[in-house]
Specification:
The complex is a heterodimer of chains A (390) and B (319). With 390 residues, chain A is mainly alpha-helical. Helices cover 78% and strands 0% of the residues of chain A. Chain A has 15 helices and no strands. The two termini of chain A are 12 Å apart. Chain B is mainly alpha-helical and 319 residues long. Chain B has 13 helices and no strands. Chain B is elongated, with a radius of gyration of 23 Å. The C terminus of chain B is likely disordered. Classes of the chains: A mainly alpha (390), B mainly alpha (319). The interface between A and B is large, with 69 and 53 residues.
Chain lengths: 390, 319
């Protein structure tokens, strides 16, 4: 059943992506008038005509469309006027975005679920305050939160974000060091975390929680050792420090919604039959809350997260663009959004379209991942979808 | 009020019974009054030479200045009155938000109604909605705003584009999910048996049933429009001159020659932007509660366990 569900989900995603690519192709042409020759060629109409011919821009639009779709599906997103391919630029920028996304949204989900569970379990006296604060955080404009943090921390004497020029980051240099550094760092953390998760599912239920806790500690201790072996530890720390502010902002603007959803889902669960049964079996109140009611409340939060992914990515774009604006566009956070933003300012449409494709594919992959998580937790979802499709 | 529209009165009463809706509505009304008051003040009480939001300058004091009796929120580095600039920015923000809300409502309701009423259209529209979800709205607005001829992004145009994009993606997803159970409900079956066509069912039963739910998401879209417009104006990507985001930008940039950040301007502009967003957000909470939708059935809920909202069913059913 799960296999059929997964296949159906992927197929629907592929169709959606094809429509999405079509919308991007014609949408960008509609929204951003002019082509490469208009924007970059100097020397009059003759030069522009030659460039158009060389790049195939004088062919009919439908031919350009088919060519672009074909190349995009083979992961060839084109080449920029500067030289490097669009794909190499985006692959270099991707780990920055993924790291911010993981720290900001992942952290918000982890902490938000815990606070939401606690606030929604019983009508405690502190709950309204927590929920009120959560509502407030969800209405703060992300770029204002970013500015507040930036200037607030600088007023308090934390100058870390002014020292960004000390880094030898060069976004457009393919041979730059931080590209493999971030990928190695991310791969280390991901591989060890998956290992801990697999081990924890194999051990007895009684030791599962302890295994995960000690495993998380082991990951935190072993990762720096591995980074030392690769001689990248100090660079990873620098990068994490650099990403602290944008990740913190993403964390703050995401956590309110998660708390509200979880606490609303927890409402009334303490009186349900399964909670009474669990208590009757001798489980403590906390165990009933976390192991039984908490899982039930997790489902809507995951669903909500799935639908909110484009908004979270949009928030990331806002944060990255705000950072670039603050530095007078000189020192961007070299994530996917900044590649997109920089290209927009230079009218580099090939990169703009490539960036949008990556944002879309990233959203699709994350959505499929979250859908699978929901389907694994709640088998009724698989059944419902398969029946609906049949 | 005709009998057929009587459910609207019940719905408004249900919304008004929630304190969040009252506070949210009051905040929005205050902003609307401020937007109307600005030109009136400039033509009556305030001297345009001093309080004009684009060219005003008070020669009697040094600039930038802190809040005082003459300038309630101080002045910026160019000598313009902060309070007057804030009031001038209220109109564009409200126009953008309300246009976005209206367009979102029309687009999302159309998509949901077509999907629920016509199976063939549903297949095509569900793919379109799915594709729309891959595209973050702020990014598209950024692409439009980044055009050197960005003057085209007036508040009205901003609201229009934002509304279409939101309406065809997240709002349509939610309303489509809510429309399906309505079409399968008993009273719709009864209407069909009584001889109602699909068009009549959609217009007389489905759309009135969706309006209470749609209103909550539409008001949230207005909040999103306020946030995004503030962001775009902070990047100088909007056509109007006195947007709140623009005030924040100048308050930061002018520190190079004033020697300090203009905190009173940043806090005032950030504060009003957050307050208006909060107003829309609270109103959305009230509308959601009135439609009896819990927070967990928000955008993307793959299965909605909430009961079919009572208020969403018209009190008078006529074919």
């Amino acid at each position: 059943m799960l296999r059929r569900y997964v296949l159906g989900r992927i197929l629907a995603g592929v169709v959606g992506i094809l429509v999405f690519l079509t919308v991007i192709f014609f949408g960008v042409r509609l929204l951003v008038p002019g082509d490469f020759a208009d924007n970059f060629a100097v020397g009059g109409g003759g030069v522009q005509g030659t460039i158009r011919e060389a790049l195939g821009l004088n062919t009919p639009l439908w031919q350009q469309y088919l060519l672009w779709i074909g190349r995009t599906l083979t992961l060839d997103l084109g080449r920029t006027p500067r030289g490097p391919t669009v794909m190499s630029q985006i692959v270099a920028a991707l780990p920055w975005t993924l790291t911010m996304f993981a720290i900001g949204l992942g952290g918000a989900f982890f902490v938000g679920v815990k606070i939401g569970r606690w606030a929604g379990w019983r009508k405690q006296s502190t709950s309204p305050t927590t929920l009120g604060a959560a509502t407030l955080t969800s209405v703060f404009p992300p770029w204002l939160v970013f500015l507040a943090f930036y200037f607030g921390l600088n007023l308090l004497g934390f100058r870390v974000f002014n020292d960004i020029t000390a880094f030898d980051f060069e976004l457009w240099d393919d041979g730059r060091r931080q590209f493999p550094i971030l990928w190695i760092a991310l791969a280390t953390v991901a591989a060890l975390s998956v290992l801990v998760f697999i081990v924890s599912t194999r051990v007895s239920h009684r030791y599962r929680r302890a295994t995960r806790r000690w495993g998380a500690l082991a990951v935190a201790l072993v990762c720096p050792l591995i980074w030392t072996l690769f001689d990248i530890r100090s660079h990873v720390y620098d990068i994490l420090l650099f990403l602290l502010l944008p990740s913190l902002v993403l964390f703050l603007i995401s956590i309110g919604d998660i708390i509200l959803v979880i606490s609303a889902s927890m409402d009334g669960l303490s009186e349900k039959d399964f909670a009474l049964t669990a208590r009757a079996k001798g489980l403590t109140d906390r165990e009933v809350r976390d192991r039984h009611a908490g899982r039930v409340a997790l489902l809507p939060a995951l669903s909500r997260l799935t639908a909110n992914l484009p908004f979270a990515l949009g928030g990331l774009v806002i944060i990255e663009a705000s950072f670039a604006r603050l530095g007078g566009y000189r020192i961007p956070i070299p994530g996917v959004a900044s590649v997109l933003f920089g290209s927009l300012r230079e009218r580099d449409l090939v990169v703009v379209m490539g960036g949008l494709v990556i944002v879309g594919v990233l959203t699709l992959l994350l959505r499929i991942g979250l859908d699978l998580a929901v389907a694994t937790i709640d088998p009724r979802v698989q059944l419902e979808k398969v029946i609906v499709r049949a | 009020m005709p009998r057929r529209m009587a459910w609207i009165r019940g719905w408004v009463r249900a919304v008004w019974s929630h304190v969040e809706a009252k506070i949210g509505f009051a905040i929005i009304v205050v902003f609307a009054v401020a937007a109307i008051a600005h030109p009136v003040l400039l033509n009556t009480v305030w001297l345009p030479g001093i309080y004009d939001p684009r060219a005003g300058y008070d020669r009697a004091i040094n600039h930038p200045s802190s809040p005082s009796a003459a300038h309630w929120l101080g002045t910026d580095a160019f000598g313009k009155d902060t309070f007057s600039m804030l009031l001038a920015g209220t109109g564009p923000a409200l126009v953008a938000a309300l246009t976005a809300a209206l367009v979102t409502a029309v687009v999302a309701l159309t998509v949901a109604a077509l999907s629920a009423g016509f199976r063939t259209a549903d297949r095509a529209l569900s793919v379109l909605v799915d594709a729309g979800l891959y595209l973050p709205v702020p990014v598209v607005m950024l692409i439009i705003g980044a055009d050197p001829r960005a003057d085209r992004l007036t508040p009205l145009m901003f609201g229009l584009v934002f509304g279409v994009l939101t309406g065809v993606s997240s709002a349509a997803l939610v309303l489509r999910a809510q429309a399906m159970p309505v079409m399968a409900s008993g009273y719709v079956d009864a209407a069909r048996i009584a001889g109602a066509t699909t068009r009549q069912v959609v217009l007389r039963h489905l759309i009135p049933a969706l309006i209470p739910i749609a209103s909550a998401y539409v008001v949230l879209a207005a909040a999103g429009a306020v946030i995004t417009q503030g962001f775009l104006s902070w990047l100088s990507y909007t056509a109007t001159y006195n947007d709140w985001g623009t005030l924040v930008y100048w308050a930061i940039v002018t520190r190079d020659f004033t020697g300090a950040l203009l905190w009173h301007v940043i806090l005032a502009a950030g504060g009003v932007l957050t307050a208006l967003t909060l107003g829309f957000h609270l109103l959305a909470i009230g509308l959601r509660r009135a439609a009896q939708i819990p927070w967990n059935s928000g955008p993307g809920a793959t299965q909605d366990s909430s009961p079919q909202p009572e208020m969403s069913v018209p009190e008078v059913i006529t074919v």
